[in-house]
């Protein structure tokens, strides 16, 4: 089960034009009533190149 502030890995290239590709790691910053997750991706400098809502089947828990 994915929860608020969990780290997740993107499993699709659907959001490549939004700044995140398959395999990128992001943080869940919101969970919507329909089950979608608002995910923020950031680079090593802390800059967030991507922030968008993804469906549950488009992410998986990130390895620890």
Description:
Helices cover 0% and strands 38% of the residues. By secondary structure, it is mainly β. The protein has one domain (7-61): SH3 type barrels, CATH 2.30.30. Strands 4-3-2-1-5 form a five-stranded antiparallel β-sheet, with no helix packed on it. The protein is globular. The model has no long low-confidence stretch (mean pLDDT 95).
Can you give keywords for this protein?
38% strand, 64 residues, SH3 type barrels, 5-stranded antiparallel sheet, single chain, mainly beta
Task: Describe this structure in a few short sentences.
By secondary structure, the protein is mainly beta.
Going by CATH, the architecture would be: Roll
> Which regions are unreliable across 5 or more consecutive residues at pLDDT < 50?
none
Through-space gap between termini: 15 Å
Helix content: under 10%
**Elements, N to C (H/E):** EEEEE
Proportion of residues in extended strands: 35-45%
